[in-house]
Design goal:
Blueprint lengths: L2 H19 L2 H18 L4 H28 L15 E9 L2 E6 L2 E7 L11 E8 L2 E4 L1
Parallel strand pairs: 3-5
Antiparallel strand pairs: 1-2, 1-4, 2-3, 4-5
Helix pairs in contact: 1-2, 2-3
Amino acid sequence: MDPWVWWLIAAVGLGIPLVVTAMPEFGMLAVGAVAAAVTDALGGGVVAQFLVFAIVSVALIAVVRPIANRHRAQRPELASGIDALRGRQAVVLERVDHHGGRVKLAGEVWSARTLDADQAYEVGQEVDVVDIDGATAVVM
């Protein structure tokens, strides 16, 4: 059997733990084995095949792994409850000042007050929700 076939068998063998364990390093080693198979198919010797396997595998691990770890660490957070309301817009239903008022926020009527004591918003204006204080939306 030609060496390139053995390299492809090795690539499949490395792909199995990739699927079972979800460790991307096995996939990178499998790509290195495919590169070694291509090297053999192009007429490279045994030493060249192992060098290509090692270089491609190490390069992929050195470059792709840190990127993957960075993306894994930056998982998007799913905001829920009052955290999902911060930053949304609301429509003023009753005049809102620092003492109170009413807004329609996310399809519900909320009590509201302004962030600034000297600010007031009239009916129909759109305001931004900056915080939720108990059952009161703090708007600006």
